[in-house]
Amino acid sequence: MKLSSRTDPGRSLGISWVIFPTPWGEIKKKSFVDTPSACPVGITSWRQDSSFREIVKTIFLIVRYFDVVKSKLEMNNHFYYLNRIAVAFSFIILFLNGCNNPQKTSSHSGEETETGIISKEYTTRSGQIFILTEDKSQGASINKVKISTRKFENANEEFILGEIDPVETVFLADLDQNGYDELYFTIRSAGSGSYSWIYGFVSNNDKSVSSIYVPDISEVDLKSGGMFDGYMGHNSFIIENGVLVNNFPVYHKNDTNASPSGEHRKIRYTLIPGEAGWMLKPIEKIKQF
Q1: Dihedral (Cα; 139, 143, 144, 150), 10-degree rounding
Q2: What torsion, rounded to 10 degrees, do the Cα atoms 285, 260, 280, 152 define?
Q3: Is 3 helix (H, G, I), strand (E, B) or coil?
């Protein structure tokens, strides 16, 4: 199979580099690009890298060029195969270099790219996949977050959260104990209050995904005797014995932000189905001294 005249740079020499001939037989180009190997990260990066494809094309062009030169100049077979072997070793070095130094990508790698984008997969116990992507290109104090999904039966969703505080923790949990994991992640503000908040996404029997509503802390909650009485940030969300807990120090009236004088308090949450979807509802206040 030859390339079209518009795309084949070696057409004037009658060159086609779809098949890579060697003294040991012919190897299809597909074997290097499409076949999984012991270094899938490097190969995955190469598949997405147009410069790599151009290098491969160039190598095949050089190999075919030797065919033309040999036929027209009657090159000595020994010299011809030495040059052929040199080209083959160049390709092997390129291959190994890609395995040892894979390029950064934003596709489920969990590594930050040059543009400040991080994407990481979280697989549930039943095999469904949540993907959390952070865009940190605007600075350390603001993130753009997107949640996408794979392998859900009826629909794979995307949830765009826009500009929020930086992501701090990400975890899977089954708070309603129905056998289907939810995805949760917490964020934390960069200010002196160091406020943390939580977002959640629930699996609807592994058929689709819905976002979880988390009620804001109201003025009533902050009043004396309220659920969040004495709350001024510096809190953290954790899973404790299968229950989501918001743990924070209690501030009294004249306390500075750096010096809370009260006890620590825990707010326990439960995941319940609401009228329009799922909700994380604070249900219990526990004092700790």
Answers
A1: 130
A2: -140
A3: coil
Nearest Cα residue to 102 out of 40, 192, 60: 40
CA 38, 40, 156, 111 torsion-angle sign: positive
Render pLDDT for 48-103 as a digit per residue (tens, 0 to 9): 444 555 666 666 666 666 666 555 555 556 555 666 666 666 656 555 554 444 33
- Most confident range (mean pLDDT) of 21-25, 188-192, 281-285 is 281-285
Q: Are 155 and 208 in contact (CB under 8 A)?
A: yes
Q: Which of the pair, 41 or 196, is modelled with greater confidence? A: 196
Please count the CA atoms within 13 angstroms of the CA of 199 that sit on its side-chain side: 21
Q: How many residues does the chain have?
A: 289
Look at 45-49, 70-74, 161-165, 226-230 and tell me which has the smallest mean pLDDT.
Answer: 45-49
Domain residue ranges in the chain: 11-100, 166-288
How is the chain split among helix, strand and coil, in percent rounded to 5?
Answer: 25, 35, 45
Is 215 in contact with 281 (CB distance < 8 Å)? yes
Q: What does DSSP say about strands 196-204 and 182-188: parallel, antiparallel, or unpaired?
A: antiparallel
Spell out the residues 6+ positions from residue 275 whose beta carbon is closer than 8 angstroms to its own.
Answer: none
Closest by CA to 131, choosing from 180, 179, 183, 169, is 183
Q: How confident is the model at residue 171 (pLDDT cuts 50, 70, 90)?
A: very high
DSSP H helical segments within the chain, as ranges?
A: 30-33, 40-47, 50-73, 77-100, 219-222
